[in-house]
Write a structure and sequence with these properties.
Layout lengths: L16 E4 L3 H11 L4 E4 L4 H5 L7 H4 L2 H12 L16 E5 L5 E6 L9 H10 L3
Parallel strand pairs: 1-2
Antiparallel strand pairs: 3-4
Length: about 130
């Protein structure tokens, strides 16, 4: 599956930022592990999460069958599972902010494996330039 970083050239002069509630060594380790070409922003108090309406998920949805299947697939591909050290119930989202500051695209995740198609994100960025 292609990630946003695989389409970074199609985003033009858009700024991509990853907001996380991790801080310090955890944030640095995450950036190194995933080789992210994006700006990383730390929000340990989760103010941005609340401002964008990102909630905590239900335990059964976050750690249910879909997640188990997703993690099993990662393990089959050689990924190692590490015990979580942060809030695994905090849900994320994807947002595109237009140059005028308005939200041009919103996606609130329903679980850890719930992400929008990259093409939708790239299209949303493109629409902000029209």
């Amino acid at each position: 599956m292609l990630a946003v970083r695989d389409h970074i050239d199609r985003l033009g002069d858009a700024t991509v930022a990853v907001v996380t509630f991790s801080s310090g060594p955890l944030l640095a380790a995450y950036a190194d592990e995933h080789r992210l070409p994006f700006t990383l922003l730390s929000d340990p108090d989760r103010r941005a999460y609340r401002a964008y309406g990102l909630e905590r998920g239900r335990r059964l949805r976050v750690w249910g069958l879909r997640s188990g299947i997703a993690y099993a697939g990662l393990l089959r591909r050689g990924r190692r599972f590490r015990r979580p050290v942060e809030d695994t119930l905090q849900l994320g989202g994807d947002f595109v902010i237009a140059p005028d500051g308005t939200l041009a695209y919103t996606f609130w995740s329903e679980g850890p494996d719930d992400r929008p198609p990259v093409a939708e994100l790239v299209d949303a960025v493109s629409r902000t330039r029209r």
